[in-house]
C-alpha cells in the first residue's frame, strides 16, 4: 500500500478531481481522506490517499 498527499488550490477543486482520475488509471484507490484546509490564509488544501498498484 502507498500513501500520498495531494496539495491543491482550494479555489480550483477540479484540479484535485483530475488528479484523482489520473491516479485511478494506474492504481486501486483504497481511501481518500477528507480535505484539510491550509493554515492561516493559505490558498492550498491537502487530501491524503491510500492506494495499491494495479
Helix coverage percent: 25-40%
CATH secondary-structure class: Alpha Beta
What is Rg? 12 Å
Strand content: over 45%
What is the CA-CA span between the terminal residues? 11 Å
* Regions with little confidence, pLDDT below 50 for 5+ residues: none
Describe the biggest sheet? 4 strands, antiparallel
Structural class: alpha+beta
Number of helices: 1
The arrangement of helices and strands along the chain is EHEEE
CATH architecture label: 2-Layer Sandwich
Mean pLDDT: 96
Short description:
With 54 residues, the protein is of the alpha+beta class. It has one helix and four strands; from the N terminus they run E-H-E-E-E.
Describe the protein's topology.
Blueprint: E1 2-9, H1 13-26, E2 27-32, E3 36-37, E4 44-53
Antiparallel strand pairs: 1-4, 2-4, 3-4
What does it look like?
The protein is elongated. It is an alpha+beta fold and 54 residues long. Strands 1, 2, 3 and 4 form a 4-stranded antiparallel beta sheet that branches. The chain is built from 1 helix and 4 strands; from the N terminus they run βαβββ. It has one helix at 13-26, and strands at residues 2-9, 27-32, 36-37, 44-53. The protein has one domain (2-53): Dodecin subunit-like.
List keywords for this structure.
54 residues; alpha+beta; Dodecin subunit-like; 4-stranded antiparallel beta sheet; 1 helix; 26% helix; 48% strand
Amino acid at each position: 500500500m502507498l500513501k500520498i498527499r495531494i496539495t491543491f488550490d482550494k479555489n480550483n477543486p477540479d484540479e484535485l478531481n483530475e488528479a484523482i482520475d489520473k491516479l485511478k488509471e494506474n492504481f486501486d484507490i483504497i481511501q481518500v481522506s477528507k480535505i484539510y484546509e491550509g493554515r492561516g490564509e493559505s490558498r492550498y488544501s491537502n487530501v491524503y490517499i491510500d492506494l495499491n498498484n494495479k
